[in-house]
Amino acid sequence: MEIGQVIGTTSLRTFRFVIKEGAEKHVKRDEFVSVRESVTGREILGIVKDIVTSNELLPDEFGRDMRLGDIILNEGEYPVPIVKILGYEGENGLEIPRYGIKPGAVVELTNDETLRRILEQDAAKSAYIGTISTRASIPVSLSLNDLISRHCAVLAMTGAGKSYTVGVIIEEIMKKHGSIVVFDPHGEYRGMAVNDSDSCIYSIEGDNRIKIAVRSLHTGDFANLIPDLTDPQRDLLDELLNMISRFYEEYDLSVLTKVLSELYDVKKASDKTDGQFPSDILSSIARKVGLATIGALMRRVGRLENMGLFDAKGMPLEAIIRRNQLTIMDLSEADERLSETVVVAMCRRIFNARKSHEKKGGSSVPTFLIVEEAHNFAPRGVEDRVVMSRAILRKIAREGRKFGVGLCIVSQRPNKLDADVLSQCNTQIIMKIVNPSDQEYIRQSVETVTEDIVRDLPSLSRGEAIVVGSAIRMPVPVKIRMRETTVGGEDIDIVGAWNSD
Ligand SMILES: Nc1ncnc2c1ncn2[C@@H]1O[C@H](COP(=O)(O)OP(=O)(O)O)[C@@H](O)[C@H]1O
Ligand SMILES: [Mg+2]
After folding, report:
1. What Cα–Cα distance (Å) separates residue 293 from each residue in 235, 267, 298, 305?
2. CATH, domain range 2-110
3. Superfamily in which the 140-207+322-499 domain is placed by CATH
4. 275 vs 170, 262, 271, CA distance in Å?
5. Of 487, 490, 493, 494, which is best to mutate to test ligand 1, by the most ligand atoms within 8 angstroms of its C-beta?
6. 324 CA to middle of ligand 2, Å?
7. pLDDT tens digits, one per residue of 260-318
8. What does pTM read for this prediction?
């Protein structure tokens, strides 16, 4: 459908046009329009990014003291849509045109069929997430292989619909019998576990507890878990863990407690010989530490033991990653340190299992890791405390693609996210963001997010997203589809709760 004609100066990135009479209602922000390239005649797609309206009867200089009188204002009015050029259909999605667009060229509304064709994905390997905001009849799907192997980020201010959107993606992946692990700090994904056979929920308390193999924890992880660990205690712990791992493949915290108590005895009475560990090693360690340090470390290890989360083997790998399984790590009862430890231990385990997938203890199942509140686990610039989870998330962001470990980071504080992790996310689902420093940071860190995209972010409504990057052929504003499973983390009707009896 013809809607106007190009006016003014054009470039390879943008043009403006006048709207044909009667076509006004079709020309709105985010609408797709097409023109022909001057030399090749190829159809070039663009998207309306702005509409400026001026009236020659009411110029800027129009004195404020003048009265309008009876003039017919419509006569002199020109709404001028400003179009950002997206490109023409090439082999691999849209390509920036090589030849210019002639002023005077006819502007048409892009056909539904054209948009459908460009956005089309293999249904067996894609996730249907919604429709184009301005065209409810055109589905938007994401290529799952790209989305997962090249990582993605879901960014928006709180309440914009991040978790809801992630839920939609989870539903789609489960339809493809995928393997997903969600780190869920607010316990809001429980409702997604519809089917017992294909979902598992683990938590910090209760029956289905998260279990972490002690052997998989580094000294730094212990230091992170035990906030009041002193340097001498840390050194002692480091030495003991080293010693134990020479005697045991797998061990739980009771072994550490046992060593500590033998060490305590050795330190107290140097003639002790009937322990489980060689007394010469223990004596040499005992010489370096004070009795108080040993006692204090024993109490701290005892505290960890009481949590009931650490054992010799950890959870079986199949309990975490398996085809057709959604695994939810509910961290709502865990504090920040414990949550971080769970993320570190699980991510490390999964990454290593995939890295050595052909060997014993490896896994043949590619998997998708979803990290909510990702700014807590991969924070930017916090150097005072070694952030162990950031290290493993960086590693997965960098190398996960080779081993079939995908990462989805979800955050309402993009500005607080580690730039390495963020820039490795090749698909971005961005929803309403008002904070200028968050906008600016995303623009700087993510190649595909351009100035004009950032400018649109404050005006998005709940459930609306702009999707850019490798899982989609062109950036599109999307209205995210309705969920099929139960939604968690709903807004609370506060006034309603006060007034109900
Ligand atoms: N696409 C959508 N359709 C319908 N409701 C939505 C949609 N996206 C979000 N919501 C609702 O908006 C509220 C906030 O969404 P949520 O995903 O929890 O936001 P966020 O995770 O960004 O803080 C929830 O009540 C959710 O049900
Ligand atoms: Mg959320």
Report:
1. 10, 11, 8, 18
2. 2.40.30
3. P-loop containing nucleotide triphosphate hydrolases (3.40.50.300)
4. 52, 6, 11
5. 487
6. 24
7. 999 998 888 765 556 777 878 888 888 889 999 999 999 999 999 999 999 999 999 99
8. 0.91
